């Protein structure tokens, strides 16, 4: 289970990225944040953002029409 969960359902680009960026600023190195989104653009945006920022994408999966991402802060 993630240390923090961010609900970005029904938010369009760029809001899921902005929400995860804000959440990552609120946790400590090594902690994890789960983002839940419904925007299909997040499938490419979140992994690319995590890589660019140096964070680890630990898990990515779909549940129905929701996309889940678990990132670990670098």
Structural write-up:
The protein has 74 residues and is an alpha+beta fold. It has one domain (4-72): TusA-like domain (Translation Initiation Factor IF3, 2-Layer Sandwich), CATH 3.30.110. The protein contains two helices and four strands, in the order E-H-E-H-E-E. The protein has helices spanning 15-26, 42-53; strands spanning 4-8, 32-37, 56-63, 66-72. The protein has a four-stranded mixed beta sheet, with helices on one face. The radius of gyration is 11 Å and the shape is globular. The two termini are 18 Å apart. The mean pLDDT is 98.
Number of helices: 2
Q: What is the mean predicted local confidence, pLDDT?
A: 98
Assign the CATH class: Alpha Beta
Oligomer: single chain
What is the element string, with H for helices and E for strands?
EHEHEE
Keywords:
four-stranded mixed beta sheet; 35% strand; globular; 74 residues; Translation Initiation Factor IF3
């Amino acid at each position: 289970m993630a240390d923090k969960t961010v609900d970005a359902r029904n938010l369009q680009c760029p809001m899921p990225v902005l929400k995860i960026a804000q959440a990552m600023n609120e946790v400590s190195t090594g902690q994890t944040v789960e983002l839940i989104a419904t925007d299909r653009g997040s499938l490419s945006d979140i992994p690319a953002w995590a890589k660019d920022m140096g964070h680890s994408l630990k898990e990515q999966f779909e549940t129905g029409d929701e996309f889940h991402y678990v990132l670990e802060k670098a």
